Amino acid sequence: MTASRSARGERPAAPDPLPIAVVDNHVHLDIARDGEVSTEVGAAIAAASAVGVTRLVQIGCDLSGARFTVEQVDLHPQLLGGVALHPNEIPGLAASGQLDEQLAEIEQLAGHPRVRVIGETGLDYFRTGPDGIPAQQEALRWHIDLAKRTGKALQIHDRDAHDDVLRILAEEGAPEHTVLHCYSGDVAMARVAVERGLMLSFSGTVTFKNAKTLRDALAVTPTANLLVETDAPYLTPTPHRGATNASYLIPLTVRAMAGVLTLDVPTLCAALAANSERVYGSWAQPIPPTREG
After folding, report:
1. At what angle do helices 133-150 and 162-172 cross, to 10 degrees?
2. Which residue segments constitute the domains of the chain, with CATH numbers given?
3. Sign of the C-alpha dihedral, residues 47, 50, 51, 56?
4. Average pLDDT, integer, range 128-134
5. Out of 3, 124, 145, 219, which residue is the most buried by the measure of CB atoms under 10 Å away?
6. What is the mean pLDDT of residues 33-39?
7. Cβ distance 158 to 180 under 8 Å?
8. How high is the mean pLDDT of the chain?
9. Long-range pairs, 261-270, Cβ under 8 A, ≥24
10. Which H or E run contains 69?
11. pLDDT band per the 50, 70, 90 thresholds, residue 36
């Protein structure tokens, strides 16, 4: 750990608030890093709101996470949700014969009116050997179809699989609102994505010293195609790389993005907020009554 990084387990200080509220469009409030305790959802929302991150998209990427997501969007008006089976889950579920049953429950959970995202789905060749790739690709096609049938946005996880992600999206036809979550491609991929109308969501990785390729990709992306996220509790932005990430640290990423784009921060914030509402709809839709209500 260098002097510029916060130690794991330490809570970084809150950055200066943003001048216009933005959305963390990908966060995992159900996940804690090894040896840590998850922050209580209400406290995480309050900390984010205090710095101008007033709305979040909670992503459940396994069955327990998807169930958690549906529970929490019923409790917190600041949250919308996404549900899917993460590509790293797919090969094991297919091998054990559980995949179809779990996909069926994901489809049921996706019907909730405050679940606005099918995702994160996609391809991850970093941890999956060749034998797991066909199952991942088939599951990606299933999730794409679900997003189109339900009219929800699609969030794509793409690790070491850029060409296949773009190919399958083209073959299946990308949903109207498709987000490349935690964008990790280069300039050429960014230009293809923009040409196809995809959204590029940048995380704290864009602030990393060794991430020039990402910053170059950001620089050629129109503001109309941009979103911002944490992927918390992972990918904490500089200068706190190594600490546990949370939505309240989004201002660090937004200000870094504004610098790359040579935009003033309020202009970028306004674009990010408008893009989020265009992709996910309004957070203002009333929460359904509880069973007790």
Report:
1. 40
2. 22-280 (3.20.20.140)
3. positive
4. 92
5. 124
6. 80
7. yes
8. 94
9. 261/218, 261/219, 261/223, 263/223, 265/18, 265/19, 266/19, 266/20, 267/223, 268/223, 268/226, 269/18, 269/19, 269/20, 269/21, 269/22, 269/52, 270/20
10. helix 63-75
11. confident
**Residue 274 vs residues 159, 224, 282: alpha-carbon distances, Å:** 28, 9, 10
Sheet holding 153-159, edge to edge: 22-27, 53-60, 79-83, 115-124, 153-159, 178-180, 199-202, 226-228
Q: What integer pLDDT is reported at residue 37 of this predicted model?
A: 79
Q: Please name which of 42, 28, 33 lies closest in space to residue 11, comparing C-alpha atoms.
A: 33
User: Which two three-digit tokens encode residue 272?
Assistant: 């990010």
Res. 291 pLDDT band, cuts 50 70 90? very low
Length of the chain: 293
Question: Which H helix or E strand runs over 22?
Answer: strand 22-27
